[in-house]
Each structure stands twice: as structure tokens, then as C-alpha cells.
Amino acid sequence: MPRHPRWARRFLSEADFDAVTRAITTAEARTSAEIRVHLEPRVPLWRPFWRRPDVLSRAQHVFRQLGMHKTAERHGVLVYVAVEERRLAVVGDEGIHGRVGDRHWNRVRDLMIEELRANAPRQALEHAIAELGRALAEHYPRRRDDRNELSDDVSVS
Q1: Could you give the CA distance from residue 38 to residue 95 in angstroms, rounded to a whole number?
Q2: Structure confidence at residue 2 (pLDDT)
Q3: Could you give all domains of the chain from N- to C-terminal order, each with its CATH number?
Q4: For the chain, which terminus, N or C, has the lower number of CB atoms within 10 Å?
Q5: C-beta of residue 82 within 8 angstroms of C-beta of residue 52
């Protein structure tokens, strides 16, 4: 029985989900930071105004919902994709954002967009995760006492 909803399986196969999880585990093996990927079919309407927020605001909201702001060094990074709307954002917590800034997140996002346009979502996510892992390892190298603070699985809502 599939673990993910149909709309998500149209974007990534179950094997792709597993490959993205492995990419996160591999990237995090070199850093104390945390990487998450979250998929939604579309950016949901926000009450009380019943309109869609911009994708960055939604990604920041999901970041908090997933508890990513609670990492010890404030160094979590979220890759958020609204699959059916073809919108995405990369959000870093204040610890890492202060070191790499918007330019880095935008560069990772732009690399993903290129591969998504080529209809290669798995590769887009794997390459983004690898790039994020390199930057995170540079600023937050892995320590002996590190523990994985957040799940490496792709979250879906």
C-alpha cells in the first residue's frame, strides 16, 4: 500500500521519496544542521481573508509547524514545494540565514526550477539537498556529539 497521497505520487514515485530521504541523510552526515523537504498540492487559503499567501510566507509557516525553528543552533533549512501550482521556496533559520543569506536560497531555488522544468523532480530535490548540505557543512560541520533533531523523511500535507 502506498505511503503517500496520489497527487504526491504523480510528482514523485515511492522510490523517489526514498531517494530524497537518502539524499537528506547523506547531506546531514557532514553537518550538524537539519534539512527537510515538504510537499503540498497547493498553497492553502488562509483565513480570515480566504486568499493564498505568497509561497515564501507559506514556507515560513510550514517551517514553524514542523518545529524546525527549535533546532539547537537555529540551522534548519526547508525546501517547500506546492506541487500542483509549481511554486517553491527555500527557507533557512536565522542561524544559517545570517551566514548565507537570500542569495544562496534563491540560487538553490533557481537550480531546482531548471530541473523541474526538465520534468526531473527527483533530481531537482537531490541536487538542491546536496547543494544545501555543502553550504551547511561549511558553516556547521558535523560534531561527534551530534544527533539528528528532525526526521529526514519527506513530509506531505
Answers
A1: 20
A2: 57
A3: 6-140 (3.10.310.50)
A4: N
A5: no
Instruction: Give the integer Cα–Cα distance in Å for 14 and 6.
Output: 11
Beta bridge partner(s), residue 76: 34
Coil/strand/helix, residue 93: coil
Running DSSP on this structure, what letter comes out for residue 147?
Answer: -
Question: What are 50-105's pLDDT values in tens digits?
Answer: 777 899 999 999 999 999 999 888 999 999 999 999 999 999 999 998 899 889 99
Question: In whole angstroms, what is the distance from residue 129 CA to residue 23 CA?
Answer: 7
In tens, the pLDDT along 14-56 reads 999 999 999 999 999 999 999 999 999 999 987 777 777 899 9
Residue carrying the nine cell digits 497527487: 7
